[in-house]
Protein: Threonine dehydratase
Amino acid sequence: MTLTLADVRLAAERLGNAIVRTPFLHSQTLSELTGAEIWLKFENLQFTGSFKERGALNKLLTLGEEARQRGVVAVSAGNHAQGVALHARRLGIPATIVMPLSTPTVKVKRTASFGATVDLTGKDFAEASMAVPRYIEQGLTFISPFDDAEIIAGQGTIALEMVEQGPPLDVALVAVGGGGLIGGVATVFKALSPATQVIGVQSELYPSMALALGRYSGTLAGGTSVAEGIAVAKPGVLTLAAAQALVDDVIVVPEALIEDSVALLLQIEKTLCEGAGAASLAAVLAEPERFRGKSVGLILCGGNIDMRVLTAMLQRHLARSGQLIRLRVSMLDNAGLLGAVATIIGQLDGNILEVSHDRVFGGASARSANAIFTVELPDRDRNRVLLQALHDAGYDANLIEPMQTAPYSFSEVA
Structure:
C-alpha cells in the first residue's frame, strides 16, 4: 500500500462537515518557555475528544450496504472506540467495541453512550485484540485502529488543515502508537511541505515504532502508561512501511515529562489533554536545544483522561516542581513545639495538607518526636527558604523523597 496525497484529499471530501475543523494556534507562552515557536493543533476539541474519529468515519463511509447491515467490530483503548461508535450510530451501523480491562472508565462509558456494544476483555491492547477474530467469523467488518489505508488517510486530513491554517513548519511532532496518525500526517507534509521534518513521539514504556525503525537502543518495558492511547506493543504493517519511507525520526520520552506536559497545557492553554495528547510537548521538553528557534507544530491528539489520573498527574507535577513537599522535622516532645513549627510554615505561605506525629519509629528518642508535614507552597524557591527558617529556629528539618525536578512549575507560568 502506498498512500498518496490524493487519498487524503479524497478522505477530506468524504468527511465534509461531519468532523470539526480544529484550531491550529500559536502559543506565545509555550514558545517563550521552550525557545521554539510552538503551534498547537487542538484535536482534543473533536466531539469525541480525539482525532481518531477522522479515520473511523472515513473507513465506515467506504463500506458497502451489506457490510453496513452486518455491523462492525473494533478494538481500542478508548479513542478509536468512541470514533467508531459515534459515527456507526450516525450511519445506522451496529458496532461492537472490544476494550482492554485497563481502559479508563470515562472512555468505556462514553463509548457505550454512543450505542455500541462494549466487550471488556484482556489486560492490554494485545490481549483484547485476541477477541476480535470471533466477531469477524460472525460476519462483522473489522475497523482497525491504525493498520488500514482508509484509516491512515482519514488521520492525514489533520495535516491538510495544518498546512492551510498555519505557517510553514520546520518540524511536526506526532504521538505514535500503532502509527496511523503519523503515517497520514507524514504523507501530507512530504507532498506539500517537504522541508518539514515529521518526528514521532513515544513513551519510554512503549517505544515500539522507535525500536522497529532502529531509532532507540532501549527495550519495550510495557506496563501501565499514563499515555495509554499510544501504549501499543507493535506497529502495524502498513504504518511501519509508511514510517520507514516518510518519518524523519522518533523521540522516546519519559513518562514524567508526559505528566508535566499535561499539567502545563492545562495551566497555560487552559486545554485538557490525555497523556498521548500531550506527548508531542513532552518531546520539546525532553530535547529543548533540538527545537530552539524552530517553528514546531504539535498535534494535541486527544483529551479523554480519567479524572483520578489527572489529579495524580497534577499532584506529581507539583511535587516535581517543588511546590508540594513532604518534610520531616525532629523536635523535643514538648507541648507547643508542633504548633511552633506549623507557625513557621504558615508565615512562609505554606499550606499544611497533612501532618503525622511519630514518637516511636523513624529514629526518635524517648523524649523526642518526628513530625511529618505535607505542605503546599506558592513557588519552588520557597521550600529552600522554609528549610532554612526551620534550621535557624533550631529544628532538624529535611525533605523526604524529593522528586525529580520538573522543567517548569505552575508559579512560573501563572
